[in-house]
TrEMBL record:
Keywords in alphabetical order: Oxidoreductase
Pfam families: adh_short
Superkingdom field: Bacteria
PANTHER family per UniProt: DEHYDROGENASE/REDUCTASE SDR FAMILY MEMBER 11, DEHYDROGENASE_REDUCTASE SDR FAMILY MEMBER 11
The keyword Ribosomal protein is annotated on this UniProt entry: no
Similarity comment: family membership: Belongs to the short-chain dehydrogenases/reductases (SDR) family.
Keyword Oxidoreductase (UniProt): yes
Protein name in the entry: SDR family oxidoreductase
Biological source species: Hymenobacter nitidus
CDD domains: SDR_c
Gene3D superfamilies found in the cross-reference section: NAD(P)-binding Rossmann-like Domain (3.40.50.720)
Length: 235
């Protein structure tokens, strides 16, 4: 088992939902967690519990992302783990999507993943270790009505991570992709914790446990892909 104690982990989209659960769980395993999102207040509250760093940033802004990576390396000397989790989505008939909704979903879901991987892949390759975990979606593997733009962005994020896996694997760097089904979070302006969604959705901690499982795999094992659903969700 790969011990996470003192591993330096950057987690994006950490202010709520899945990312927050991942930050908390990795901190509980002894990792030094750098939590990233735009909401500074939520990050301040989280950092009291993780004892790590909180760096407010927009994942689609190149300068912000470069700053997160530089600040993390300045503070901790290295990065071991990147969890690309920040994501947004809205669901509409194709013709009812404004062009700026396309930009918003592709900027956060695809460009955000691209920028963090771009700045960290050379660091990981030079150290011949490192683990990138991408939270995509089961909709990166299927299509559905009202999911044209979100689905396209998740297919794109998945393709980026799949190609990157092939580029970095010879350098001893792992890339793992998680495909969750419905998760009870604030996603798409949902309100988590209702009696209904508690029955029909995964909890954020379920996905966080999948991240932990992937990261704790022994050094010679890479879990390329992991899909998980609530038992009630047909796929
Ligand atoms: O959603 P939510 P989830 N820069 O809304 C952050 C995927 N997924 O936890 O910036 C930086 O509770 C935002 O922070 P803030 C989904 O596609 C979900 O469910 O402060 N951060 C917040 O921390 C996504 O990739 C379901 O607003 C930005 C976080 O992202 C991942 O799971 C199903 C940002 C979103 O938290 C986590 O989403 C599925 C930016 N520009 C896949 N924009 C599901 N929930 O059912 C947003 O298949 N964030």
């Amino acid at each position: 088992m790969n011990d996470l104690t003192d591993k330096v982990a950057i987690v994006t989209g950490a202010s709520r939902g899945i990312g927050r659960a991942v930050s908390l769980l990795l901190a509980m395993q002894g990792a030094k967690v750098v939590s990233v999102a735009r909401s500074a207040d939520e990050l301040d509250e989280l950092v009291h519990k993780t004892n790590g760093l909180a760096i407010p940033a927009d994942v689609s802004d190149e300068t912000d992302v470069q700053n997160v990576v530089d600040e993390t390396i300045r503070h901790y000397g290295q990065v071991d783990i990147l969890v690309c989790n920040a994501g947004v989505g809205s669901f509409n008939l194709l013709e009812n999507n404004a062009a700026d909704e396309w930009d918003r979903m592709f900027d956060v879901n695809v460009k955000g993943t691209f920028l963090f991987c771009k700045f960290l892949a050379p660091h990981f390759k030079s150290r011949k270790s490192g683990h990138i975990v991408g939270i995509t979606s089961d909709v990166a593997r299927r299509t559905f009505e009202h999911g044209t733009v979100y689905g396209a962005s998740k297919f794109a994020q998945d393709a980026l991570l799949g190609s990157l896996r092939k580029e970095v694997r010879p350098h001893g760097v792992k890339v793992s992709t998680i495909y969750p089904g419905l998760v009870d979070t604030y996603f798409n302006e949902s309100k988590p914790g209702s009696p209904d969604t508690e029955k029909t959705h995964l909890k954020p901690v379920d996905v966080a446990q999948a991240v932990r499982y992937i990261l704790e795999a022994p050094a010679h094992v890479v879990i390329d892909e992991l899909m998980l659903h609530p038992l009630t969700q047909e796929w």
